[in-house]
Amino acid sequence: MGFHVANTGIEAELQFYELRDANWHNACNCLETSFTRLAGFPYLNREEATSIPLSHRIMQTLQAPDPTNHPAPAIEVDQYDHRLDQWIRDAAKYLPAQGPIDVFVHHNTLHAFQNRPFHEAVKLGLDCYGAQPYLSENVFRELRNQGQISDLTIEKVIERDETEGLEDIIAGLSTRKQIRLALMRHAFHSGPEAELKWIITETNALTEFHPSVSSQNRNKILDAAAIHRSQYPEYELTQPGLPDIDKDWVSKPRDSMEVESYAVRLLWQQCRHAVRIASQPKRQASKLVRPRCLLFHALGHDIDRVVNDFLIRFTSAFVDQGYSSTTLPNRDQGFFECFKTIYRAPSWTIDRWLRPLSQWIRKHENSGATTNEIIYDSLRDLGIDDGNASLFVRQTLLSLGGWAGIVCQLESRQHAVVHPLDSGALRDFLAVRLMLERLAIIDLAHSVPATTNKASRAPTHELIKAMVGARYVSEESTCLRDTFHLFQLAQTLGWTSLDLESLNHEEWQALVEEVNRFDELHRRRIFQDAWESDFRRRTLSAIRQHAANSSEIIRGQRNKSRANLTDQRPSFQIITCIDDREESFRRHLEETDPGCETFGAAGFFAVAMYYRGSTDAFYKPLCPGVITPAHYVQEHASYTHERLHENHAKFRNRLGIAGHAFSAHSRNVIGGMITGLAGGMASVPLIANHQTAVGAL
Predict the structure, then answer these.
(1) Any idea what DSSP says for residue 619?
(2) Which of 164, 301, 337, 499 has the fewest CB atoms below 10 angstroms from its CB?
């Protein structure tokens, strides 16, 4: 299981930027179709993305309480500061906790959920980071076709997953177990509504039976269609984009396309009608809280692109640990103070969207506003109420999680770095980011006709409503996903048009809820468990077979050799860390030399200490990042080598000064030109070696 989330979340979204010139509705449909790439949408999972129409989600979010129309009751400053600190602490739990690479290299990507069961943890990782918890359903089905996942194991996992109620008959049609097995064994089309609409209009999904339908169920559905036709001769089938059914289809051969098309479309029309009138199950509320998500869905413009690009440059310079030739002004006074010092004065060289920044900074300084008050002002201006504030803060910090995590680590693990950050650095980072996001939204409003005239004076949340509303087109949910699932399931299990026609509202509701409850994520979890179970069975079977095939002579020689070694000293002993990498290394040594003796122990030998070698400039913690060292250990040269040690120290000092000077001067204009010219000479040996190798051939 490996989770990787890009720091900026931009890479996975570059494919969408060509949609800017298209109309907004087509762009939204394309984005809905591409929602499986969740790295670009780290706070909305696929189920939430496809369960509610996009325009409904946008308008529901925009209908949040407006702070200007419904002012919140007065809150004491101390109380609000406490809540803000709590929001930031809660968000910090989800930030990457990777320490400096020279201190401790291991990092559990899901460290925030490590106290949860596996399946619960990876699902929370999907909701929080947008990282996929399992392989895709298509990959699992390919593994099943290859024989790596058996149907028998899938059935056992389903029985183990839900021990009660599997034999309950749903809507008088099939048992819960039969429905789930059918959804696991057959590859049904599934996806956003835009994708399903394309399948309906461009493929033969409504004119031919699904490939998984057996001949018995096919004949059963055809017979029911003929009976329905005889009972209701005036019943018409209408489907936009499909040709009309020939009125004389009954007289045609049973295997003709017209007969099959009528039966399939009759089944589809009944599923569509029944799902529309059935009571719909409650959907999980959308987690689109950030204005960036609303604007990106509605306009195809991502404000994170410019905000992250600017914030990465500034943050990387601020967290520098001494490698840069210069230091940012007022760095020791904090992240926000350093930021204000640099951008307080107006500059014509700055990007257009950042030009109001100097005026904002001076306004805050003149009012004496604290960092907490600036954050609160940004939340109010963006229209974020207290109920969504905690989630909004977490999403905002995770939008650039890598750099926010570095700031958090330098603030909380001050003992592990040379230049730590003072307490409150992550809060300052949040204040700067919110200010930049507001500027980016205002700049975007200047380019949208509906908000051009009021972009400089209206509150930001009003600009967001106007920009999204300018591209808003109302649409009704057709429940296409539920209909398509039931339509394919009915063919596979042999549900006829007569069976479906007899269902009442409650039975349809129970059927729709059952199919929705066993969604794609649930099916992928079943596939994962079945895959692991079959893999474990095959591995253990192979080990058992290998042991059975070993001859008695070989086993006897091995036992005799080991018996002779019991009274002898081991050829060598080795102690390694208790780690999966070192474990395989120890196994290899034992197989290569049965006379050796290996041990496993904690890598830091349970002695958490700061260590400084005789040639080191600083102490380094020698323990995992979750442990604070309690001891200081320093290496000293013996008195017989003191003079030699001093000479070596002076030489290293001169060498370090020279190296630093070269690194610093190589970054100016003249030094960069010299380095570029000299660096080109390094290609000469490479080209010579290549030509020599070609000549030898």
Answers:
(1) -
(2) 164
- CA torsion 190-193-194-197 (nearest 10°) is 80
Q: What is d(CA 336, CA 342) in angstroms, rounded to the nearest whole number?
A: 10
The H or E element spanning position 620 is: strand 620-622
Alpha helices in 447-519 (DSSP H): 460-470, 480-493, 497-501, 505-517
Compare 690 and 533 and report the one with higher pLDDT: 533
Distance between CA 365 and CA 336 in Å, rounded?
12
Lowest-confidence region among 79-93, 353-367, 593-607: 593-607
Q: For the segment 195-222, what is each residue's pLDDT rounded down to a tens digit?
A: 878 888 788 888 788 888 888 888 888 8
Q: What is the DSSP letter of 284?
A: P
- Continuous H helices in 278-400: 291-299, 303-318, 335-343, 357-367, 371-382, 386-398
Token digits for 243?
């040709």
Cβ-proximal residues to 207 (8 Å cutoff; 6+ apart), any chain:
242, 257, 260, 261, 264, 265
Alpha carbons 52 and 521: distance in angstroms, whole number: 17
pLDDT for the residue 1: 34
Cα 597 to its chain centre, rounded Å, is 44
Predicted local confidence at residue 38, as pLDDT: 31
Q: Please name the residues in contact with 225: beta carbons below 8 A apart, sequence gap of 6 or more.
A: 259, 262, 263, 266, 267, 496, 497
Q: Measured between alpha carbons, how far is 245 from 267 in angstroms, rounded to an integer?
A: 14
pLDDT per residue as tens digits for the range 140-162: 999 999 999 999 999 999 998 88
Residue 263 CA: distances (Å) to CA of 179, 204, 208, 475, 556: 22, 13, 9, 30, 71
Whole-prediction pTM: 0.69
Q: Give the angle 460-470-449 at the CA atoms, nearest 5°.
A: 75
Which residues, 6+ apart, have CB-to-CB distance to 516 below 8 Å?
A: 281, 482
CA distances from residue 46 to 136, 192, 681 in whole angstroms, order as listed: 12, 9, 52
| Contact predicate 336/428, CB 8 Å | yes
Is 192 within 8 Å of 33 (Cβ atoms)?
yes
Q: State how beta strands 573-577 and 174-175 pair.
A: unpaired
**694: pLDDT confidence band, cut at 50, 70 and 90?**
low
Burial 60-74 (b: 16+ CB within 10 A, else e): ebbeeeebeeeeeee
Instruction: Give the CA angle between residues 266, 271, 272 to the nearest 5°.
Output: 100
- Quick one: angle between helices 520-549 and 176-185, nearest 10? 70
With beta carbons less than 8 A apart as the criterion, state whether 492 and 123 touch: no
Q: Which two tokens stand for residue 126?
A: 């999907």
Name the residue with tokens 């494919």: 15
Separation of alpha carbons 297 and 308, rounded Å: 18
Q: Which pLDDT score is estimated for 312? A: 94
Q: Rounded to an integer, what is the distance from CA 158 to the centroid of its chain?
A: 27
When pLDDT is cut at 50, 70 and 90, the band that residue 71 belongs to is very low
The pLDDT value given to residue 428? 94
State the DSSP string of 373-420. HHHHHHHHHHT--HHHHHHHHHHHHHTTHHHHHHHHHHHH-GGGSSS-
Q: Which three-class secondary structure state does DSSP give residue 244? A: coil
